[in-house]
Known about the structure:
This protein is α/β, with parallel strands linked by helices.
Amino acid sequence: MSFPTDLEIAQSATIKPIEQIATKLNISRDDLENYGKYKAKIPLDYIDEQKIKKSKLILVTAINPTPAGEGKTTVSVGLNDGLNKIGKNAIAVLREPSLGPVFGIKGGAAGGGYAQVIPMVDINLHFTGDFAAIEKANNLLSALIDNNLQNKKNNLNIDPKTIVWKRVMDMNDRSLRNIIIGVGGKSNGIMREDGFNITPASEVMAILCLSKDFNDLKNRLSNIFIGYTLQKEPIYARDLKAEGAMAILLKDAIKPNLVQTLENNPVILHGGPFANIAQGTNSIIATKMGLSLADYVVTEAGFGADLGAEKFMNIKCFYGDLKPDSYVIVTTIRALRYHGGAKSGEFENSNIEALKKGFENLEKHIENSFKYQLKPIIAINHFYNDSEEEINYVKSRCEKLNVIAVVADEFTNGGEGMKDLAQEVLKSIEEYKNDFLPLYSINDTIENKIEKIAKEIYGASSVNYSKKALNELKIINNLGLDKLPICIAKTQKSLSDDDKKIGRPKDFEITVREFEFAAGAGFVIPILGDMMRMPGLPSFPASELMDIDENGLITGLS
């Protein structure tokens, strides 16, 4: 008998009315903003700064992933269930999935196996409309920019060639990366080059996730940089008086969403920026909401620890005044085989020699943890083809590095399979005495901040800059944005900027090809390699396996 698919598990689950989940968190039914029976929004006035100081924040990250990912979300959901299973008042606070990957290569993104967030179909599709609202707010600004170019009475003299703001949609579509708009004569707008990013790459998404409250949201929206006038003066969203209308479109999207696990434990989902091109974390508001409602909050940071966790530490913690109390690094035996040189199709098979070599990647992420003054716990996300020899090897090597490795068996056993990890997390909070320290000073130069990340986290020997990047760096400094955190855009597949350098590359240089900046969100973006803000679909998209019958039964969404 084959193991059921994620969708089959989710469809057979007993799901409780969302009011019952809210009751566990002492949220009044009258305060919930229901979106059907099983999902709801929580008012912002449930954030309690005094309770936040007493609750504990558990950050889940991972090694550099294989193309299939290593299960951070699944482990995070399972750990939440495990903590509740041993009697703790816990909640998971996670990101919302993007439609692009759902229909592209990844499929669903609400956990897996018996560690899922439900209603799975709703979450993976339109959910509560947050992404649609972000898309509309982003594209309203685009429309206002083009309207101003054509308007003779209220013209800001924007130079069309300098406009950096792009439209967005939540779908993988490479054909929209670079387009020409305004075709068909002056009545259809001013002809110019434009393009689309995917919604999770929108600065509006980053702003939503880094805002402390609604006023902060409006202020950050007003600071979005658009381009320059013909007189070479910078233009911001506030010059178009756009922030008020944009904020109206986000009035509901700013509120966190409450759902549940398969075991009917509470989960908050909110926001969803990608970690290779943005900060890769859920919203500050959602995290603070979780800390206000529960004693233990499990959250995650996207992709490997060199991307999501680094940005969590140096961007989200900076703006949100947060600090992790426990730090979990997820690995899989198959990923260690992959980083040891096992080829695609081979890293599913036992290979102790490849595993030994690939352990170097995990070892680097462990070393990096201590640079934040955090002692990690290693979660071995268990697969059926993991051999005891390989598991014991990882445990032994971790022990020599003075860290504990625990098998996470959430996929097949849910919360019951995560009790050991839950106990180890509680022990780490009580005994490790983690005293979080950011990697760099915010007042340091941009170059020094980049060098700190590149050398300390990636293991690079030096940082090079293209001529284009150096010119853009001067612009950033002239705009007074040099005291912002750094959000490096690079491949998630390697510690370096070359996705072919697996394992733990050494003596390598990284090259900053160009700079972007998000003046509203509040970070500078050095771009390494050829990073795309609008992904394309694979040769065989996941959508080809999806269907729905006349009764509304969906198949293939997993």
